[in-house]
Amino acid sequence: MSKSQSKSLKTVDEDHRHSDSEVSNLGKDHYLLEDQVGFILRGVSQRHLSIFSRLIPELTPTQFSALSKLCQLGQASQNELGRLTAMDAATIKGVVDRLKLRELISSEPLSSDLRRLILKPTSAGQQLYLKVVSSAHAVTKETLEPLSDKEKDVFLSLLKKLI
Hints:
Blueprint: H1 3-10, H2 20-26, H3 37-55, H4 61-73, E1 76-77, H5 78-84, H6 89-101, E2 105-110, E3 113-121, H7 123-143, H8 149-162
Antiparallel strand pairs: 1-3, 2-3
């Protein structure tokens, strides 16, 4: 969470605050939103997405994920690509449709099963990926910048445990 977000949480309109007696009546079960994992993760995610859109305006994070994975693999089915990028079927379909519309990926039927489509990055897709991959590294670096090297390792390790 940014300092300005944290500060804005502290400057809540006085009309919306509980009196001291009301707060003490809430007791030990008082729920402080700012201390909850979902609230904190959302703030971190918003910060990361802001950095991403500033450094890689050509693609959304989901489009970059799909294009990046296809460039890494060379080809994949839409279902496989969705699994590998942690996107549900509806999300990956929309991402693939937009990347195809921009001619960054292509699809063709699998020769052994004409019902299955195989996705591949186009030459334009590969070029765009190569153009933005260093910026993708910079997104991660800037997102994690407030942490020491040891904290970064621990943070990423702990987040991976939650997946």
